[in-house]
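During the reporting period, we have paired protein sequences with backbone structure tokens. One record among many follows, to show the layout:
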Amino acid sequence: MTMPVMAMLVVWGTLLLITVVLYLYRGQLTKDEDDQIYLDDAFSHEKAAQEAIAAKVAKVEPVLRIFKYLVLAMTLILVVYFIYDAITQFK
């Protein structure tokens, strides 16, 4: 395997690892999230906790979306490279 291919695989693996970690982090945040609306003032502390969770998830979502697209782009680059390499070797 040549050096550029190895570098591309390392970049792809790193991006994939970061994406998986972000998915796991978001999953940990949302496991305590409720789908209820608290209308009574007695539950204001629970409402505040839910709003804090929603705020953290809202911060993670754009970063996660960027990394998903980066992993997709890197995957496409690798697939195109390997197809091109296979075609040039058979000529």
Residues 29 and 53 are 6 Å apart (CA to CA). The radius of gyration is 21 Å. The first helix runs from residue 3 to 30. The chain has one domain: 3-89.
